[in-house]
Amino acid sequence: WISGGPCAQRVQKAVEALSKNNPGFLSASASDAFRGLFWYPPGGFDSWHTDSTLLKGWRLYLVDVAEPSDSFFAYQGPNKKWHKVTDSSQKLNMFNVNEDNEVWHAVAS
To answer: How distant, in Å, are the alpha carbons of 56, 59, 107 from that of 77?
Structure first.
């Protein structure tokens, strides 16, 4: 589920605080919804995908980068247009995945 490292623990506490302030935002608890801590080194990426086979609901990507504009989050919006959002330090990318809304997205650094 999650490693016990200090960074992962801080992220879990932030998710728990967010869920307490927004009832119904996450599933039963932060531990049910927290899926991982990912690091993309320069040149790293996660190719196009929808997460449609995983738990339905909100996706929250907390982003922290050493240099703004060196990485991005790309997605296909409801109007089928493609968007590329440049990352910046301490940014939040958020979207909802459900039966009616499969969000194609990718990340790259």
So the answer is: 17, 15, 15
CB 97 within 8 A of CB 57: yes
List 82's β-bridge partners, or say none: 76
Task: Report pTM.
Answer: 0.65
Query: 5-11: long-range contacts (C-beta < 8 A, 24 or more apart)?
Result: 7/37, 8/37, 11/37, 11/62
- DSSP-derived secondary structure letter, 25: S
Kindly report, residue by residue over 12-69, the tens digit of the pLDDT.
Answer: 777 677 667 666 555 545 455 566 677 788 888 999 988 777 777 777 788 878 887 7
